Amino acid sequence: MRTDIRIAGFGGQGVLMCGIVIAKAASLYDNNYAVQTQSYGPEARGGASRTEVVVSDEQIDYPKVENPEIFVAMSHEALLKYIDDIQEEAILLIDPNLVYQDEIKEIIEDKKLQVYTSKATETAEETIGKKIVANIVMLGSFVGATGVISVEAAKKSILDSVPQGTEDLNMKAFEEGMKIVEKIN
Amino acid sequence: MADKEYFVQGNEACALGALAAGCTFFAGYPITPSTEIAEVMSRKLPQIGGHFIQMEDEIAAVGAIIGASWAGQKVVTATSGPGISLMQENIGYAVMTETPIVIINMQRGSPSTGQPTRSAQADMMQTKWGSHGDYETIALAPSSVQECFDYTVKAFNLAEKYRCPVFVMADEIVGHMREKIVIPEKVDIVPRQMPEKTDNYLPYDAPENGTTPMPSFGQGYNIHVTGLTHDKRGYPSTDDEETHTELVTRLCNKITENTKEITSIEHQFLDDAETIVLSYGIPSRSALTAVKQARQQGLKVGYIKLGVVWPFPIDTLQELTKNAKRIIVPELNLGQVYLEVDRVLGKHAKVELLSKIGGALHTPGEILDKIVEE
Amino acid sequence: MADHEHRFMKYLRTERLPHIFCPGCGDGIVLNTIFNAIEMSSVDFDNISMVSGIGCSSRIPGYVKCDSLHTTHGRALAFATGLKTANPKQDVIVVTGDGDATSIGGNHLIHAARRNIDLTVVCINNDIYGMTGGQISPTSPKGSYATTAPYGSTDKPFNIAEVAKAAGASYVAKYTTAQPIQVSNAIKAGLENKGFSFIEVVAQCPTYYGRKNKIRSPVEMINWLKEHTISLEQAENMTDEELDGKIITGVYVNKPRKEFVEALEDITAQISDIDPDTNINRAYRGE
Fold first, then answer.
1. Is there a contact between B223 and C70 if contact means CB atoms under 8 Å apart?
2. How far apart are CA C158 and CA B268, in angstroms?
3. Does B65 touch chain C (CB under 8 A)?
4. Alpha-carbon distances of C230 from C161, C163, C179, rounded to whole Å
């Protein structure tokens, strides 16, 4: 069984890091297969950015994501830019403070999307006290909403990927993300 | 120490492969999408007493690795299309002087500056014909992060064995993709052979298989290395027709006559295959998905992947495809290796190109559509 | 014959003689000064490797009984950078010409000088492309003639020694083939300087430069060099107009500074216990 995941946001939010942590968790710690790819342009900062992850229990031949069944959006612009090919009944996980839900009602209805929200950026800023860990909060919400990777693997992968000295902060961000995710439809 | 697992980019895997193969010297020039290789080497090489130099351009990068190879070190550079174009003259020099070097080409959209952050396989013919003159090179095409590691190791070993430039022809997708790799506890390495020092030592007197042991500078061999046509002593002999013919023929033959030794081919579902999808590098992954889907539909479709593209494994391919009616070649260019497939297999099968440019990979659906269309 | 053999014959690949240089060429004088400098210096001939590019002067290493790398046009310094870095125990001499070093190889020259890599570069500047038959060079004097400058050169020439100095070479000297003692001393100083040493030798090319510019014999050419030579000290008080066409000789720089490979290996010493010298010839070990 293969799961195609797309994570989109604006450059600098740590979208890429989020994808790497998921794929690393799946392949090194859950003993599944995973491929992480990305698209990027000449901008080092800003602009719409995305990463894609395929997770599977068998070897992955085609490494790219064609029709995501999980879409994580951390910015409205990136959501609009990359959502067109989403599968029917896919999971859409959004930061409701950064995505205007009114403007995406149509696609949610058309594609019968299951929508989850996570106030990742707000939580990172206010509860954790560091806006920079918003991506890890979102990762916690991703694990809470989808279960594609195990909590254990996610934690190991985070610890393996974040800078030394920030482990506790990131663990707290992850746990908080697991808690705050809500299904809204 | 046991086998180790890492979750890394293709570019990092190439760098780790080089280090595992015994590489201690890197010279290069930054270029997207290969730069991460230089970055990893700049961090790792000083840790093992090796040397990393960011040169002033790609011409200098190849010059420096050739120089370092003659100092007895295993050497590599990494670049992309525009850099490869600049390197061509010195690549020919490495061919003529039989200097082992490894060049990693993370292919990107081209010609010219093209698409720095998108994928292509449009430098395949340049690798074969890019420098002036008649020559043969070895080119490998990885399709996964694990193969980036494995093929880079293999490239170093082939460079030593055949004393020639060897290319790892990857692409932007595989270079930037991340997957798990397993680095084995023990990596097989081909060491360079030091020639015996005799009174009438001839550095370019080639034995039967065409490749002769290579001395290194500073060991008292007093050898002369030149890109001019040279005799068996290594001395310029630019007017003698026989010397030139013998030298250039040997340089080509030492590769082509060892094609079976050098090549690596993977295949599946060939027994009853009427149609075969023949690919190399990253499109093989779409191809394999498409072939499996076609098999599920009951279609007699087979899969061949070339791990080594040059030298082209003519005999092996003719044998593997002798019962096929149709061969589809998906490539991220407007038809390059396709030309060679058609030349070699076109007499007994219909060879069709499935071209894609612009930066994206063929989807399995696009290859499946080609399989079912007739 | 053996009794009268030239004292430097032992350094030559005698089986390669006769050489390709024209009668009266400056390359022979420079080769003599190189051997003389090696004998005068603390450097052991057996420890020398030579690297060159393309051109008449770049053929010199091919006649010397040492390991020699005759590379592509303009790129000698790039190859030498790799060779020296991968085995810093060798004394590496680069022989190049004006076209090789400053035209096609100008970029490599400034960067090798900037790095201060321990190479001794002997640049034989004959103001013309000899190997290809007398074309104009970046050092050809303004108004001089060549097969590709039939109406005379209109460009301002490089003073290569100034270029090397500006780019950061730690030893730079310039003399002519009419000053072989000074050239020998300069090459000796270059061999003993641990850093990038650049010795420019302005030389006669009677075959092309001489014929094109009506200085027909080698002797006339040597006299022409002498007449146009001034010292750095003399040049100090001269105007640009007075300096036009002059060959300004002397030691341009003698200012040792941290050498490139040493600086790289200092980093290795800070982060590991490995001696980089253990990697010399590591390709031969199956590890």
1. no
2. 64
3. yes
4. 14, 18, 12
Residue B55 forms contact with C (CB below 8 Å): yes
Contact B55 C78 (CB under 8 A): yes
What is the dotted CATH code of the domain comprising B265-372? 3.40.50.920
In chain B, CATH 3.40.50.920 covers: 265-372
Within 8 A by CB and 6+ apart from C6, the residues are none
Q: How many CB atoms lie within 10 A of CB B205?
A: 13
Radius of gyration of chain B (CA): 21
Domains of chain C, first to last: 12-275 (3.40.50.970)
**pLDDT at residue number C216:** 86
DSSP A6-66: EEEEETTSSHHHHHHHHHHIIIIIS--EEEEEEE--S-SSSSEEEEEEEEESS--SS-S-S
Touch of B by C (3+ CB pairs closer than 8 Å): yes
Contact A62 B285 (CB under 8 A): yes
Give the B:C interface size as CB pairs under 8 Å.
Answer: 193
Which residues in chain A are closer than 8 Å to B364, comparing Cβ atoms?
A: 61-62
| Statement: residue B1 has pLDDT above 70 | no
Specify the DSSP element, H or E, that contains C101. none
Distance CA(C26)–CA(C18), nearest Å, equals 16
In the DSSP assignment, the letter for residue C129 is B
pTM of the model: 0.97
User: ipTM above 0.90?
Assistant: yes
Within an 8 Å CB–CB cutoff, is residue A23 touching chain B?
A: yes
B59 in C contact zone (CB under 8 Å):
yes
Q: At what angle do helices A15-24 and A134-146 cross, to 10 degrees?
A: 40
Confidence of residue C2 (pLDDT cuts 50, 70, 90): low
Neighbours of chain A (3+ CB pairs under 8 A): B
Cβ-defined contact of B179 to A27 (cutoff 8 Å): yes
Instruction: Provide φ and ψ at B275, rounded to 5°.
Output: -115, 135
Chain B from 266 to 295: CB within 8 A of any C CB: none
Domain with CATH 3.40.50.970 in chain B: 1-262
8 A C-beta contact, residue B278 and residue B355: no
Inter-chain residue contact C86 with B223, CB threshold 8 Å:
no
User: What value, to the nearest 5°, has the Cα angle with vertex B51 and ends B45 and B54?
Assistant: 100
The percentage of residues in chain B with a pLDDT greater than 70, rounded to a whole number, is 99
**pLDDT per position as a tens digit, C120-138:** 999 999 999 999 999 999 9
Residues of chain C with pLDDT > 70, as a percent, come to 99
Q: What number does CATH give the domain A2-183?
A: 3.40.920.10
| Contact (CB<8Å) B73/C271 | no
CA atoms A130, A135, A139, A141: torsion sign: positive
Question: How many other CB atoms are found less than 10 A from the CB of residue B108?
Answer: 26
Which tokens sit at C227?
């007449």
Which pLDDT score is estimated for B209? 80
Q: Is 3.40.50.970 the CATH classification of the domain at B1-262?
A: yes
Residues 305-344 of B with CB under 8 A from C: none
